Structure formats: C-alpha cells, structure tokens
C-alpha cells in the first residue's frame, strides 16, 4: 500500500536537518578562524578540516548499510539518530572547551575529528528517512522543504555569529572580529546553542516520529556486493561522480572563504587579515544561505514538475557562472553579488539532487536499501571535503597564496558534472504519487 504525503513527518525531518546544518555551519564559520590562531599554512588548516571528509567517506557507508538490516522496536534509523545527535552536541562543547583551555593544535584537531565522527554516525540514517516515508513522485516537494530548513539552519548560525561578533567588537574596540569574540564571553554562545539544537532535534525525532514498517529483505547483499553494484549501475555511478564534482567546487569556497576574502580585499591571507574579514565572511555566508533558500523551494517544485535533468543542470549552471566571474572580482560589492547569485543556483541544485537516489531505488525496486545507498550518497559529499581541503590548500600554496584561483577551478568542476547528469538513462522515469494528506499531523510513537 502506497503511503500518503505526511507534512508532519516532513517537518520533523526538516527540524533534524535544521539542527544538523547549525552544527555544520558552526564548523564552517568558526573552525578556520580558530585554526588560524595555531597556524597560517593553508595546507595544514585544509588538511585538518578535511578530516570531516575522511570520516564521512567511510562511516555513513558502513552504518547506512547496517541500518537497513537493523530490526528493533525503535526502528532502523532512529537509534543511530539519537546516539549521533547526543554525541555531536557533546562534541560541539568539546571544541569550545579545548580552544578555551589553550590545548595544543593536535588536541584541538582531535576535538574537531570527534565532532565529525559524531555527526556522521547518523548522516545516512537521516537522509534515508525521507525516501522511507515519502512516495517517489512527491520527493521533490519534500526535498524542497527539507533543503529550505537545512539552509535556514546555516543562515540562523551565521546571523547569530555575525551579531555576536558585532557586539564583541563594540565591547572591546578590537577591529578584528574573531579576536574581539575571543576576548569576550560571547565565544561560548554559538557552541552552546549548537549543542542544544543537535541534542534536542535528535531526541525529538527519536521519541516523536515513527518510522514506517521495515520492508523484508529476502536476499541481503554483503557490504562488498552493494559497493560493487553501485559501480556496475551506470546511472548511480554517473550521479555519484557528478555530485562529488559539484560538492568539491562548493567546498573550495566553503573551506577557504576567509582566505579568499582576505586575499581579494587585502592582498594576502595572513592571520591578521583573515581575522579582519571574519565579520564580513559570516555576513556573506548568511547572504549565501538566504539566496539558497530562494532557490530551494522552487528547485523542489521544478524537480517534480519540469524534470530531473533540467532542474539539476539549471542549478549547476547558475552556481558555476559567478565562479567564472570570481577570477575578475576585486571589491566587496562584487564578491557579495557573486555569492548571492551562486546561492540561488546551489539551492536549486541541492533540492533537485537530494531525491535522485530514492527515485532510482524506486525504479530498480531496491527501496529496502535506502540506508546503504544514501550512505554512499553522503560519502560522495564527504570525499570532496577531503579532496578540497588537501588539494585546495596545496593549489593555494603552489599559486603563491593566491586564493582567487579556487573560483575558476570550482566552476570547471561543476560544468564537468553536468554532462553526466544529462546522460543518465533513468533519471526522469518516476511513478506518480498519491495525493497528500490534509493535516500536519506527526505519527506519534506508541
């Protein structure tokens, strides 16, 4: 029997996505500036931040696989979500504590690594819950809502951090935003709020949202067989490869934004210049997330109504064009406009790409395996963090600390991904969905 669209379930998942995005935004917004207190090497900072990608390359793949076969009265996904969410909240507090206590670089890097591990303990399970509970023809709409909340979480954090930096600057008279924040009690606030959201949302989903009954798996493939089956299926292989390319493009900007801003505006990414652009970086991240929200909801609608290929390619092209322009920009206004346009394209791309794996599993009658395939989905989002952190840092160092070079390279990666999407054979073949339910009810755990 086909499931009806349930707004309560979707909004519950959106809340979980919001909290996770607050956590990842904390990492994006504060880790690079705090690491700049330890070292000025782009390669060292990029390598430490790339631990997120290394951990995400393996943990979601393995735990997503085992969550498919888990049989418990608490469901297949929710136990992972609760444990991972609680540990991630604790890890967020550990990052602040290790920095505040002045531990050496290795200790601070370990606290970041524990945070990355905790977040990835339930990444695949969170992703798998959407196709588990939403029919194929309505996944674009669900993805649009969830993507909207995810990037609203980013916006919330960057707005909060920018506000706290402004207050710290006003209180201390220090011109460099991150230095001012460090000198006040305000530095702890983003980490505490992040921990509250991560723990609270995980407990909410665990105790309130009910999973559908797990489908029977008659012939369960081994971990190795499932990895081989992905490589053998051309559509999955093309999509995962394309996603790796466009996420690597995004991570060039996400990891090194402060360095890019410092180089363009001041001519170098010294510790002093990086900390001087912290406030601007947080504001630009907030702006980027506002425009991502602008693209996310219509991106989900376009996915359901106008076709998968066109919606993904449209988002990719809009995201790539400002990066081509990025090689030529020199002013704060130009940077702001470029990131704003890129955000619209990224919102469309994210909303249109999230449901693809679930729809392909429906097409190939493999819906019992959403955990493992979304685990691999997350691995191809984590691999770019690993590659972008190390390769991006090496490129910058080889280019004489020229961070601007990351823009055109990122654009090329996105454009290389688009033909792979266009030539996917089964991307637009999706069954019709059942009408949505009238209420906003959440299925309560009994």
Structural notes for this entry:
The structure is a single chain. 76% of the residues lie in helices and 0% in strands. The protein is built from 18 helices and no strands. Helix 3 crosses helix 6 and helix 13 packs parallel to helix 15. The longest helix has 34 residues, at 139-172. The model is unreliable at 430-446 (pLDDT under 50). Residues 1-213, 227-446 form the Major facilitator superfamily (MFS) profile domain. One of its GO terms (molecular function) is transmembrane transporter activity. Keywords: Membrane, Transmembrane, Transmembrane helix. This is Permease, major facilitator superfamily.
> How much of the sequence is in beta strands?
under 5%
CATH topology: Growth Hormone, Chain: A
Helical percentage: over 70%
Main β-sheet, in a few words? none
Provide the CATH top-level class. Answer: Mainly Alpha
Q: How many domains is the backbone divided into? A: 1
Roughly what is the average pLDDT, rounded to an integer?
Answer: 83
The CATH architecture classification is Up-down Bundle
| Rg | 21 Å
Number of helices: 18
Low-confidence stretches: 430-446
Structural class: mainly alpha
Look at the structure and name the CATH superfamily: MFS general substrate transporter like domains
Distance between the termini: 21 Å
The SSE string, one letter per element, is: HHHHHHHHHHHHHHHHHH
- Overall shape: it is globular
Oligomer: single chain
């Amino acid at each position: 029997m086909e499931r009806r669209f349930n707004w309560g379930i979707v909004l519950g998942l959106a809340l979980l996505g919001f909290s996770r995005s607050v956590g990842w935004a904390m990492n994006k917004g504060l880790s690079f500036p705090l690491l700049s207190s330890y070292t000025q090497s782009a390669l060292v900072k990029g390598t430490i931040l790339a631990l997120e990608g290394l951990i995400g390359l393996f943990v979601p793949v393995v735990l997503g696989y085992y969550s498919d076969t888990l049989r418990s009265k608490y469901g297949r996904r929710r136990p992972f979500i609760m444990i991972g969410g609680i540990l991630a909240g604790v890890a967020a507090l550990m990052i602040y504590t290790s920095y505040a206590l002045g531990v050496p670089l290795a200790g601070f890097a370990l606290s970041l690594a524990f945070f990355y591990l905790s977040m990835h303990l339930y990444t695949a399970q969170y992703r798998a819950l959407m196709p588990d509970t939403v029919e194929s023809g309505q996944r674009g709409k669900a993805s649009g809502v969830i993507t909207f909340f995810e990037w609203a979480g980013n916006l919330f954090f960057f707005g909060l951090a920018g506000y706290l930096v402004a207050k710290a600057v006003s209180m201390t008279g220090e011109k460099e935003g991150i230095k001012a924040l460090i000198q006040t009690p305000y530095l702890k606030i983003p980490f505490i709020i992040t921990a509250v959201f991560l723990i609270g949302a995980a407990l909410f989903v665990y105790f309130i949202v009910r999973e559908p009954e797990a489908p029977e798996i008659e012939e369960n493939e081994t971990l190795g067989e499932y990895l081989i089956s992905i490589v053998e299926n051309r559509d999955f292989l093309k999509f995962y490869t394309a996603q790796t390319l466009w996420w690597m493009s995004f991570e060039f900007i996400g990891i090194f934004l402060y360095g890019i801003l410092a180089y363009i505006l001041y001519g170098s990414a010294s510790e002093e210049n990086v900390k001087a652009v912290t406030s601007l970086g947080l504001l630009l991240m907030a702006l980027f997330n506002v425009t991502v929200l602008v693209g996310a909801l219509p991106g989900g609608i376009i996915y359901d109504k106008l076709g998968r290929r066109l919606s993904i390619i449209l988002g990719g092209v809009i995201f790539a064009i400002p990066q081509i322009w990025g090689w030529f920009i020199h002013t704060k206004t130009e940077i702001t406009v470029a990131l704003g346009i890129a955000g619209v394209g990224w919102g469309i791309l994210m909303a249109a790409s999230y449901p693809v794996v679930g729809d392909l599993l429906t097409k190939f009658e493999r819906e019992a395996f959403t955990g493992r395939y979304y685990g691999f989905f997350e691995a191809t989002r984590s691999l770019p963090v690993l590659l972008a952190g190390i390769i991006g840092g090496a490129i910058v160092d080889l280019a004489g600390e020229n961070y601007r070079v990351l823009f055109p390279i990122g654009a090329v990666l996105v454009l290389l991904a688009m033909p792979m999407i266009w030539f996917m054979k089964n991307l637009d073949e999706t069954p019709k969905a059942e009408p949505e339910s009238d209420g906003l009810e959440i299925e309560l755990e009994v």
